[in-house]
Amino acid sequence: MPAPIRLRELIRTIRTARTQAEEREMIQKECAAIRSSFREEDNTYRCRNVAKLLYMHMLGYPAHFGQLECLKLIASQKFTDKRIGYLGAMLLLDERQDVHLLMTNCIKNDLNHSTQYVQGLALCTLGCMGSSEMCRDLAGEVEKLLKTSNSYLRKKAALCAVHVIRKVPELMEMFLPATKNLLNEKNHGVLHTSVVLLTEMCERSPDMLAHFRKNEKLVPQLVRILKNLIMSGYSPEHDVSGISDPFLQVRILRLLRILGRNDDDSSEAMNDILAQVATNTETSKNVGNAILYETVLTIMDIKSESGLRVLAINILGRFLLNNDKNIRYVALTSLLKTVQTDHNAVQRHRSTIVDCLKDLDVSIKRRAMELSFALVNGNNIRGMMKELLYFLDSCEPEFKADCASGIFLAAEKYAPSKRWHIDTIMRVLTTAGSYVRDDAVPNLIQLITNSVEMHAYTVQRLYKAILGDYSQQPLVQVAAWCIGEYGDLLVSGQCEEEEPIQVTEDEVLDILESVLISNMSTSVTRGYALTAIMKLSTRFTCTVNRIKKVVSIYGSSIDVELQQRAVEYNALFKKYDHMRSALLERMPVMEKVTTNGPTEIVQTNGETEPAPLETKPPPSGPQPTSQANDLLDLLGGNDITPVIPTVPTSKPASAGGELLDLLGDINLTGAPAATPAPASVPQISQPPFLLDGLSSQPLFNDITTGIPSITAYSKNGLKIEFTFERSNTNPSVTVITIQASNSTELDMTDFVFQAAVPKTFQLQLLSPSSSIVPAFNTGTITQVIKVLNPQKQQLRMRIKLTYNHKGSAMQDLAEVNNFPPQSWQ
């Protein structure tokens, strides 16, 4: 058989291929020749054939048929054969294949070989693909080589020991005696791998971490090595861009970070050296920036002095001025992590951070936007909002939703005046109205309602804002609601804050009618407009007949929502005209009640004050009917009443027809069925009209407290707690707030909580604050349940939980019978 071609010739031949098919044909032809050679047990050219096979493997072609040939090369006495054999084993074998176990004896023999390079090959292979069984069998040999005086073998043995510890953590103590003298080595390769080994041991075992802190006095040794690196002169062997061995410096800084975390003595011992590194490292090259970044992370993670932390933040501030986008991004991300603990130090770099909002890179823009919102407080709210509103005007569409939400939250918390608050939110609605959250409209309406002295100013501003432009639907909805409520103030021209405009009743109605017929108006917006026109029948005096005509026209609308409203309003004109003025009177001041959970004292942007827990916006649609029915079928029995879904806050509630359709002909109470009220209003005896489109405001005021909370469910890391409130105005109603927390290491996604109660109760389940339960108890999902218990019976509830965790869909049922007597008596 002729000698096979060399690897160099094969590479040259393959590179001449003009098409993928031609290359594939060459590879298949050469693979056939290699297989024939393997079958003939050709020892002369086995090494050459395996080398060619590895090249084909690198190109993406199958090479598994060469695995046993690699083992034969490893067993050979020639170094060139062993080198290719071990390389092939690292590329073609892994611990999932039983073939690799045949190597154990060969590796053990080579670890005791007289030639250091053969021992190095064996250590590299074991450290690359050794299974837990191989690591257990060969850990003793690795530990012996770790104690040898040969620095070439010690550095490879240290890295191999890292792999052994990762595979078999219980073998960690075996390597403890060998680590005592590793840091006394002068060879930088041994020092580097030793620090890697010590880092792995400290990260995996708290006992090892405590041992190295107290018994081994590891921190002073690391400080000495780091100081020598900083103070040493030029060393051509380790110099990178004028800095002595930056890779070793970075590894030492990471290990110091682990040792100093939550430890006062260790942190104090490394404060001085960290200050030296931060001040003496050259920043003109990327190598120096890498060391400074690790230094900053270490300073922020240990219990360092306040001056040192300010120095670290100033380094990040200098990073923001760097031309390299990656360095700027890293600086913004690091500042975002530290802004809560060192707020004042970060505030000094506010102007630089705001400048990053103008960066062309979208990643830097997003980080700068998040950090800018984190820096907002009562002292800088006007200046920061001016910059953020300018950013909102010019940013890409994918930023507008998050930016608008951030402006709403900041304005609500730090607004210097109600007029400024209203102007800011109106500016957002004018600029990015299509991107705001669903709760923006009711929140602004509530703000306007509570600002009694601003009613004339607000309705005039909104009227001018929507003249001829209906593209921003949330703005049009707010404007329609305000015109309906305060149209008389608009016509009378009573605005004192700015020059009043002269508007007639017909001009106001023209605007609302054009909203009704505009192609840009959604069904929700038309509902707002029609309700506003109806309200104006009691505010205006000269246009009542026109209003009647408009309302009667929409009594035959193809939009069921509009048709239902128009029919009800027509009935109000004809049958209940004596009640019209009372039913359509101006809305009272709305009290804001937080239904997403309790408040807590949080440290925010340098100021301590009560603030609601941050929650995600509720889902925009009602819960599907099938969820309630599925739960009803699952729990069984005819004494269970289904869950009543809530109406979303961004949609004007209908006249109760949707709820009636959802529940069908079920008689929930056993009494004659009353016309149901809107879902967010707990009273049963409401009239069938919904006249103002804002039924989302909770009516549970004057809440009494003192009812003990209970744990309703605790399993697989998921914990559900119930807290209770009773209404003084309606003692039969109990408000239950559930809090779901997750103690596992991964988030629980798509979380859905469902509940059902016996037939003698009525239950309403409001929208949850989120659908993700964060890991490690870093946050909770809150959801409110309202239970009507007119007969004062003992409360019982069945719950169903569904969520995704670790890639699997989870589902569980539970029954809660341990409600405290105060919650239902």
From TrEMBL:
PROSITE patterns, A to Z: GAE
Gene3D superfamilies for this protein: 2.60.40.1230, Leucine-rich Repeat Variant
Highest taxon listed in the record's lineage: Eukaryota
Keyword vocabulary terms for this entry: Coated pit, Cytoplasm, Cytoplasmic vesicle, Golgi apparatus, Membrane, Protein transport, Transport
Record region (Disordered): 601-630
CC terms in the record's Gene Ontology section: AP-1 adaptor complex; clathrin-coated pit; perinuclear region of cytoplasm; trans-Golgi network
Keyword Ubl conjugation: no
Compartments reported by the entry: Cytoplasm, Perinuclear region; Cytoplasmic vesicle, Clathrin-coated vesicle membrane; Golgi apparatus; Membrane, Coated pit
Topology in the lipid bilayer: Peripheral membrane protein
Function statement: Subunit of clathrin-associated adaptor protein complex 1 that plays a role in protein sorting in the late-Golgi/trans-Golgi network (TGN) and/or endosomes. The AP complexes mediate both the recruitment of clathrin to membranes and the recognition of sorting signals within the cytosolic tails of transmembrane cargo molecules.
Name by which UniProt lists this protein: AP-1 complex subunit gamma
Taxonomy of the source species: Eukaryota, Metazoa, Chordata, Craniata, Vertebrata
